[in-house]
Amino acid sequence: MSTDREREEAVMREVLRFAIEPPTPGLADRVLATVAERSERRREPRAQWALGLVATALAAALVLTLVYGARLARQPLAPASHGPTPQSSAGVVAISGAGLQPFFASDGGRWLAREAGGRTTLYQTPDGGATWIARLGYEGGLPSQVIIDPGGAGIVVGGQAGADPVLFGTGDGGASWRRLPTPPFAAQAWGLPYFTDAGHGRVLDSLGPGRAEILSTADGGITWSAAPVFNDRANFPGVSSSRLRIVWTADGRGIAVLPAGSSGAALHVVITDDGGATWRASFPQLPKGVNGADGLLDVSLLPDGRGTLFLQAPDPRRSGAPALYAYATVDAGRTWAAPIRFAGPAPSLAARASFALDDAHWWASSSSGADLLATADGGRTVHRHVAVLPAGYAFRSLGFWSSTAGWAVAGASGGRTAMFATTDGGVTWRPLTPP
Prior knowledge:
With 435 residues, this protein is α+β, with helices and mostly antiparallel strands. It is built from five helices and 29 strands. It is 15% helix and 33% strand. Strands 9, 10, 11, 12 and 13 form a five-stranded antiparallel beta sheet that branches. A four-stranded antiparallel beta sheet has the order 1-2-3-4, with no helix packed on it.
């Protein structure tokens, strides 16, 4: 066997050994020593010596590349970044109109109300938002409730364009609607009606300074009855009772939320156990150092009395930056659990979107408005989903019909508004096609 052949086989043996075994110290030196047989080179012709030199250089380069490549491969990878990753704006279609609000009916229907030019149109989707059917149009603002029971009976509580309540009823699942007459009672002003189902609802009837009554219906607004007159100025100091948002249970327990700054008293709501005949204050525990009188309150209540009270107030621990606190109740506000503070401020008190499905499942926007805070256990553990909306968008309203599925309305600069859907509890969102 020739010297060239022997040298080539030696190189190949070392390279193959490296390919199937971890490299050992001195591999490069051994290979180079094998191929660098200077004493043999003196006996070769000049041409063979030149070819051998080229082969040696190529072999050395190959071995060094393999050795250092293997060492780099064995080095630990740097930790992956967990910072926010802006979502793509692909597929996001802006929706025109001054206001937009989704609604979820107990019969499984999905609805969307859009206000434009002082007129509201109510749309229904049969396929999760891919297509829309206009079902109702009226003069006035966005509705506060769209309720349709599994039997097909339903109520729309529309935004008031004038002095009287705007109510519509349906008996065919929302395919058609009829305007309901104003309750036949003398009223100086009306509050906002609230329905616990398609049949049972209540509305405040203001009779003048210091006198009000609560009207109730059990047949979807066809007939109404009145509870005893009470002194609304004494129970709701500093604010017209017709401006109050009052939510109700099926058995006549109610919670009235006072507007921010309307009372110099400590943080409280006003509750009733008898359908509005008598009222009393209920005081949730105030977070340490927080001035509840400067905060915004919002409450949600299920027909059985479970609910959540949200408080947005300046946090003294963060130089007055807005913070969100949540209180759970199981008895329509008679008692409140200790406040749960949601981490992450909102840009302003009015900028945060929040939603409570029940007393355990809550969601709220945070930071610039594109982050979402979520809890499934009443706030014992809170998960933060970062930058879940496309760049520039912020949550304006949230709504869920289950612990995993919901819709959101988001806004961006230039007046752009879009809708998004989630099926994983708010971890990810996809754009919806507008009507």
